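Hi R.,

Here's the chain you asked about this morning:
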Amino acid sequence: MAISKLCFLTTFLLLAYVSQAQLSLGAGRRQFGTQQQRCQIDRLNALRPSRRVQSEAGVTEIYDEAEDQLECAGVSVQRHRIEPNGLLLPSYSNSPRLVYILQGRGIGGAVISGCPETFQDLQQSEERLTREGSERGERGERGERGERGSEEFGQMPRDEHQRILHFRQGDILAVPAGVPHWCYNDGESPVEAIVVSDISNNQNQLDKTSRHFMLAGKLQQGRGRERYRRGREEEQESSGNNVLSGFDSELLAEAIGVSRETVRKLQGQNDERGHIVRVERRLQFLRPSRGEEGEERESERGERGERGCEDKVVGNGFDESLCNMKMRENIGDPMKADLYKPNAGRITFLNSQKLPILRYIQMSANRGVLHRNAILAPHWNINAHAIVYVTHGRARMQVVSNEGQRAFDGELRRGQLIVVPQNFALILQARSEGFSWISFQTNDNAMNTPIVGKTSFLRGVPVDVLVNSYRGMSREEARRVKFNRGQEMTIFTSEGSRGRREAE
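And the predicted structure, written out as tokens:
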């Protein structure tokens, strides 16, 4: 009996270990040969998009992946603008990504393999049934398809799909690698979103290139200049057909069970609308109404479920928990701030403790707002690169390398982007109009070390160590260096701005 219990316990622990190992294989970041040795990050630049791809109902702007700082961080960046009633067609990518909604609102969906279609409609209108029956007759489908169609017409057809989500300004959306996703603007103003893909993530087993696989439509050729890595073919810029277009039409028709005419439509032949198309009428699909009382209760249940997701991910029910994992979180709401100082600003952090799916894609983010002349304390990121995108205003930023040299010393403006490499120190001060940013990190629990202020390097070092570390420093000077910022943390008001406010 004791031996049986021991065998059972051993087997259980072994299965738990294997499950954890399988999960680990899908996470983390990998190196591509000796790529890091070739990183040229002694000089950083504020970047703007280098290529523009126009579509029928929107535009996508792409940052040059071959820029040294993006290449060394192992990320690619693009910015979408979707007009009202515009649909960003379904696609998937070879790397996980985070999407931040800069403005607007809309609806999106992701199709996760193996997850059930939990949105179901068992009733459809008689008019639609008649129309579908007429279409079947026009196509002249025969064989099993025709027989199956007749049987379905005798019954009530149903529509079903995987869950959808509503998004709004300030939301972060997490999309794993290989997961098809789409986005629809059901609002009255354009949707703008910045997208960062982590192409150095272990989920990407291809080369260090961001690859987007269209499942519908056709990607138009972009305008603008873009540098290409050695060995990368330039004609890739103009290749934008969807995945289905590469299959033989007759074979694909047989596989799906439809006519070749239908397959030609699936393959996007003669479709020049691009990857963002205009919906002729309002998009119709299954969704709970915004005002339903049950929506709030479902949200509460989801939040309770998220707290238990951490344990589920480690166990053997990972696929099931992924189906139910929350993929969206708002970090633009001031009420969700983690750090707040009335006269200086606020910062909201989003990591895998708040949004468990981030553990799977190994990314995190933070959203910051600085008031006029406020200072973001000097600090360095311990375990991640930071991709900083400016959403409002201007600020002066300095970034210092391990050699004590300024890798960047300049002004950041709205729409610009810069990569702050891991362990490089930075300081930032807002200009008179203030400054706001969104920062994407290449670790699901990114950490940083402040140099000054509460919980900082200087605060944690004994006074005598400071005196002996900096030549000529007195004990009184060391105490001022250590305690001058008192209980302040991360966000500081400048002495100059403080004096001007008192004068006013």
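DSSP finds 13 helices and 26 strands in the chain.

Let me know if you need anything else.
M.
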